[in-house]
Every structure is written in C-alpha cells, then in structure tokens.
C-alpha cells in the first residue's frame, strides 16, 4: 500500500468536473477574449508588461467610475452608509492602481525605447476611463473631450459626464438641503466648467468640522472625500514619477510635454475647501 504524499490534495467528489454546455469560470469572465487581447506590435519582451499593466488599469478605472456613480446616487438618496462603502472601495482601487506603477517601473528606459515608437500617437492621455473618473470627481475641462471625437459612443458618454453634477456638486447640494447656506451660484452653475473654491462652502465645512458630533454623517463624508483625493494624488504622483524614471523629459507619445504636463495635474484639487478648512480649525 502506498501512502498519500503530504503535498497531495485529493479532489473532492462534489467538485464539478463535467462543464460541457454549462457555465464555467472562463465563460463567465470571457477569459478567452481578455487573455488574447494582448496584440504586441514588437518582439520585445517588456511590451507584454506594458500592455497588461495598462489593460488592467483600464479595468480598475472602469470599476472606480462605476463606484463613484453609485456614490452619487447614494448621496442623492440620503443613503450615506452605502456611499461610505463605495467611496472606501474607490480609495482602495486607487491604491491598487498606484501599486501598478511600481510594477511598470521594473521596465528600464532602454527596454521601453526598444518598442516605444510602435505606439505612434497612442497615449494614456487618451484613456476615457480615466477622463470619465476625473469628470465624475469634478475636474471638468471640455477641451479634453475633443481627443475622443473619433469615437461617437465614448464622445457622447464623456460629454454626458462633463455637463452633469459631479460627486462634490451633489455633496454641496446635500449641504444646502439640510440647512447650510451655500451660494446659489454654486448649486446652479455650469457643471461643465472647472470647480472653483467658494467662501460659503468653506464656511459650511468649518461648521461641520467644528462640531463633528452634531454633523457626524457629513463629517464622515468629508473625510471619505479626502481619502479619495489623497489616494488619487498618490496615483498621479506615482504616474508622473514613473514616467520621469523611464523617459526623463521626453515628450509624451500623445504630444504632451510629458513630465511637466503630469506635474500640473498634481496641483489640481477636487475638493479644495476640505483642505482649506484644516487651516481654519
């Protein structure tokens, strides 16, 4: 009689093995389409890394946008518990995206230059998942939609996100609805324009932070928003630094100045009054 090796795990009889004409893991996730979507344009080893990192990032960005849209609905419906849950999830998604830059950083400048020219004008600047997420969080700029005019469906979706209230706009409307004095111009403004800090909004947050027990849900919501900005800024910085590490001060493939252009994004705040209020406390 032979003994069972310690490292051997017996297949349990209840496990499904006959999956013909039944739902399977690969069918449910459409794995053949996903795993065969890496169409390399060179014979360079590191191009596979480059493609998969960006493809995976696009999936995470899609999920982040999905969750922010849910948070907007939740806040409109006074469902703060679920809003907190999905906003916390967005923070972790952004943390995951930030970590992906560390993996990409294992590619050296020499490795990247071996296939960079095959990208042509393709660039992460053209990521509509990223653009939609920024619009949902309030960083609006109508000129940024023009790069997507060649794709009617994407162009229409981004224009919709451009003109609709973003997450912060919905939060400010909620502050007004519960009795805080918010300037009418902040509630009925053109939401396609970039957000600018406002004294009435600053004063409302100051009241909330000065008495967090009385306004606990709004206080907690504010800190959740700060979590998102914190995580997003970490992602932006790591993106910029990774690009700097790999291509230095070369122009971006999409035509931007590269690192200087990415540095400007770090200066943009989604929720400026939530950082300003810290000075006032």
SSE topology:
Elements: H1 25-29, H2 31-35, H3 46-76, H4 80-104, H5 109-113, H6 128-137, H7 152-163, H8 167-177, H9 184-187, H10 199-210, H11 216-247, H12 259-266, H13 272-280
Helix pairs in contact: 3-4, 3-6, 3-8, 4-11, 6-7, 10-13, 11-12
What structural keywords apply?
281 residues; mainly alpha
Radius of gyration from the CA trace?
23 Å
Classification by helices and strands:
mainly alpha
How widely separated are the two ends? 77 Å
User: What is the count of helical runs?
Assistant: 13
**Element-level helix/strand string:** HHHHHHHHHHHHH
Q: What is the global morphology?
A: globular
How many β-strand runs?
0
Overall helicity? 55-70%
Report the major sheet.
none
Overall mean confidence score, pLDDT: 95
Low-confidence stretches are none
- What amount of the residues lies in strands? under 5%
Instruction: Name the quaternary structure.
Output: single chain
Structural overview:
- The chain is an all-alpha fold and 281 residues long.
- It contains 13 helices and no strands.
- Helix 4 (80-104) runs parallel beside helix 11 and helix 10 crosses helix 13.
- The radius of gyration is 23 Å and the shape is globular.
- The mean pLDDT is 95.
Quick synopsis:
The protein is built from 13 helices and no strands. The protein is mostly helical and 281 residues long.
């Amino acid at each position: 009689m032979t003994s069972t090796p310690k490292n051997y795990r017996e297949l349990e009889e209840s496990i499904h093995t006959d999956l013909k004409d039944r739902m399977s893991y690969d069918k449910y996730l459409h794995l053949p389409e996903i795993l065969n979507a890496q169409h390399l344009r060179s014979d360079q080893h590191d191009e596979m890394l480059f493609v998969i990192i960006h493809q995976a990032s696009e999936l995470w960005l899609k999920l982040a946008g999905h969750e922010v849209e849910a948070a907007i609905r939740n806040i409109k419906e006074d469902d703060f518990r679920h809003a907190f849950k999905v906003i916390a999830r967005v923070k972790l998604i952004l943390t995951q995206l930030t970590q992906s830059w560390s993996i990409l950083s294992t590619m050296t400048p020499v490795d990247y230059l071996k296939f960079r020219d095959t990208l042509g004008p393709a660039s992460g600047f053209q990521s509509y998942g990223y653009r939609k997420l920024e619009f949902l969080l309030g960083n609006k700029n109508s000129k940024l939609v023009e790069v997507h005019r060649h794709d009617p469906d994407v162009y229409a979706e981004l224009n919709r996100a451009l003109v609709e209230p973003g997450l912060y706009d919905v939060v400010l409307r909620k502050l007004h609805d519960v009795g805080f004095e918010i300037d009418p111009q902040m509630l009925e403004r053109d939401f396609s324009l970039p957000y600018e800090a406002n004294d009435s909004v600053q004063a409302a947050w100051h009241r909330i932070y000065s008495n967090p027990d009385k306004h606990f849900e709004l206080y907690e919501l504010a800190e959740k928003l700060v979590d998102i900005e914190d995580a997003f800024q970490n992602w932006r910085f790591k993106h910029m630094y990774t690009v700097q590490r790999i291509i230095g001060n070369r122009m971006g493939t999409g035509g931007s100045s590269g690192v200087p252009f990415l540095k400007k994004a770090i200066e943009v705040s989604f929720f400026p009054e939530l950082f300003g209020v810290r000075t006032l406390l």
